[in-house]
Structures are given as structure tokens and as C-alpha cells.
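User: Predict structure, ligand nicotinamide-adenine-dinucleotide.
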Amino acid sequence: MTKCIACIGAGYVGGPTMAMIAMKCPQYKVHVVDVNEARIAAWKTDDLPIYEPGLLEVVKAARDRNLFFSTDIDSAIREADIIFVSVNTPTKTFGDGAGRAADLQYWEKVARQIVRVATSPKIVVEKSTLPVKTAQTMEAILNAAGDRTSFEVISNPEFLAEGTAVQDLLHPDRVLIGSRETPAGLKARQEIVDIYANWVPAEKIVTSNVWSAELSKLVANAFLAQRISSINSISALCEKTEASVREVARAVGMDSRVGPRFLNASVGFGGSCFKKDILNLVYICESYGLHEVARYWEGVLAMNEYQESRFVKAMIRYMFNTIVDKRIALFGFAFKADTSDTRQSPAIFVARKLLDERAQVVVTDPRALDNARLDLGDAAAGVQFTDDPYQAARGAHAVAIMTEWELYRSLDWERIYASMEKPAFVFDGRNILDHQKLFGMGFSVFPIGSPPLKHF
Ligand SMILES: NC(=O)c1ccc[n+]([C@@H]2O[C@H](COP(=O)([O-])OP(=O)(O)OC[C@H]3O[C@@H](n4cnc5c(N)ncnc54)[C@H](O)[C@@H]3O)[C@@H](O)[C@H]2O)c1
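Assistant: Predicted complex:
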């Protein structure tokens, strides 16, 4: 094998990206390492630690050939020519910048470990999403090693979306690689370009300076979240005016300057990235004294919180202002379809609010029940969990769609209706069901962004 790659952090990004590189580049040896022993053990089985359609096939194509998982981080660093760092960069929960800034402690620990262990030159690639200018800090730590070895820092942010990670990695809209524009920086940049060039067309591999690459990832997530908040704000207006947000989104999205994607109104966006990356953007803007810019992006988050709380308030109001002891089934807990990830899922907020109102909450999800239990923490003790939606709905006053799992469209809704308390409510937090059909069966239906269909 011509080169050795290490990836520190075997999570939703490190695992799939490295599996794809290993599958497409048999000439590279790829070592994925993590401090989390259970996670590494799961990557070695067919029961992977994350659910992602098509991922097992990619992993199996390369595992034990040129793709290896281990907890021996030092050996992986020592052996590697190129080190991708894909550790988590959550929002800081303490001290200065709490609730806004990125918590870079995991990132810095890795940088220090690399310095301590490395005995030969390395290219260190920022794969995690980081505040703009992090490469400078990284360089400062790495160069503190003196002349013992040399490091080049590259920014290669990841744009995959959970649920479609394999397709996104196979056919990326673009791969972004930022470096210092020095001879050494450009040489290192080319080495990373060479990896992706094994399967990504040249015109989709974009290079830039390192700061643009770091910032582009934050901005891409901010723009995506902004579209969701924009259409969600309009959904509230539609409910007041008898316009339909689906019809408005279709008409607006057909404008080629706007485009149709990311215009589905919903209970709100979730996932580990949008909120944290916008908070991070806001914090960075404020630290540069750009308060108006910070307020602008904060609005995207405020709208998302409004949408989540509006959804729960509507549930309570329509269910005759009390849900005490009423069984309510949440269909889906993952933050989106085709993933087991529940981080920042609107379902967490909704479940907690319903519990505060003393409802009996039942959660069903085809893939995310283990994570749902973890995310609900102490509250999980008061929640029932089942992977069978029919069982979840039995005896319930209401079903609330929290995740756009395809299977919910094709359920036997007549059977569900027959098994529920009456009046039977459906709150469609993802606007995926045929509302007229459900209404015809006897349900009272509450979509997002169009008038309710009520039998009372
Ligand atoms: N999840 C996504 O869809 C997505 C998409 C693009 C970018 N990102 C970014 O990628 C980064 C990673 O995200 P993720 O979702 O994969 O996170 P994750 O929490 O799933 O994985 C991070 C892994 O890093 C490991 N880790 C932490 N500190 C370590 C250390 N010192 N040594 C070794 N391993 C260590 C953790 O144990 C964990 O398994 C974040 O910055 C995120 O913003 C995520």
C-alpha cells in the first residue's frame, strides 16, 4: 500500500467517510481509531454502531483488506502519513461562551496526542466542523514540537447528510479542500485531492484557502437551516390564512433561483449539527463585533424553537386543553428518516413537554429506540418504547408523526383508527400522510401549515 491514513474519531462522519475512502482506494491503508471501545468493537461486526442505508456493504468491501478499526490511537498516528481528525465538537456547556461557542477540548487533546506521538511528517486534516481560524490553533500546538517533525494542516469539512451518507459520499456535490497557500501547503492539499480523485470527478473537487474551507461548512449548514426556518415561519402564516404551505412551497420552489429542496415545513429541524454550527457562527460573529450579523442568524434558531413549541401547544389546545393521562404515540424519534441518530431531535422536546403535561407517552421508531432512551435521560422511565407502531397506537388518543420514515405512509391506518380512543387525532409533524384520506376514515387531522381537518 502506497500511503497510510489514520482517522481519529469513529462516529457518524469518521466511520462512513473512511469506509468509502478505503473501498475506493485499495492502495491506501486506512486505520480508524477511537477512545470508545464499544464503538470500535461494533465497527468490527455486522451490527455497525450507526444505521445508514448501504453502509454495511461499503464497510464489508474494505474491512480487514485495507480498512481497520482499533483503539490503538498511538500506533495509528505513528504509522500514518495523513491523519483525518473527526472527533466531536459540541457546543460548550460551561465557562466563557457556554451555550454558544464550540467546545474544542476533544480536538485539542487529539492535536497534543499527535505531537506527543508522531516521529515523521504528517498531514493533519480537519474533518470535524470547526470555527474559522482553528487551523491556526492547530498549527500552534503542532509546531510546538520544534524540529522533531513537521505538520501541514488541511481543512476538508464533511458535507454528508445522515440517512443518505453513502450516496452523498459516492456522489458528492463537491469536496472542499482548503490549505495554506505556501509550497508545502499546496503540496499537502494535492495529496488530499489525490485521494478523492480516485472516484470524484475533478470539477467537483474544489480547493480554497484554509479559512474559506473552515467557514464554508458553517455557512452551508446555516443556509440549509435557514431554508427550513423560512418555510416553517410561512407555515404559521398559512395556518392563519387558509393557504397551504405545501402549495406555497411547490410554487416558490419551482422558481429556478430558489429550487425545490429543503422546503418541507415540519415540526422543526434537529440533528447534531445545525443548531451547534449556527450557535458557533453567532459566537464567532459576536467575537468580531458583528452583532447585527449574529442577530440575523440567531433568528433561524429562534424560529425553530418557535415551531417546536407551537406544535406541542397546538396538540394540547386541540385535545381539549388537557392531555393528563391521555396516551399519545410518537411515531418516530430519529431527527430524520433513515438514521438511528436522535441528537437534537424535535421529538425530545415534544416528548418532554407532553410528559410535563402528564400525558402517557409511547415512542415507536424502527431504528432509534436505543438512542431515544439515552436522549430522554431520567424522563425515559416514564415513557413506553416499542418498535411496533400498531402497538404504540393501541388505546392512544393521538398519534404524532415526528420522523418522516417511509413506512408510516403505508401503515394500515384503518386498523390504527379502529384501535384508538375517539376522537382519534393525528398530528402530522412531517406532513407526510394523506390528510384527506385519514380525515375520511374518521381521524381529526392536524397538518403543519394548512387548516386542520376536524370532526368536531
Ligand atoms: N453527523 C453529521 O452528519 C456530520 C456531518 C458533517 C460534519 N460533522 C462534524 O463532524 C464531527 C464529528 O461528528 P460525528 O457526528 O461523527 O460525531 P460523533 O460523536 O458520532 O463521533 C465522534 C467520535 O470521536 C471520538 N473521540 C472524541 N475524542 C476523542 C479522542 N481524543 N481520541 C479518539 N477519539 C475521540 C468519540 O468517542 C466519538 O466516537 C463534528 O465536528 C461534526 O460537527 C458531522
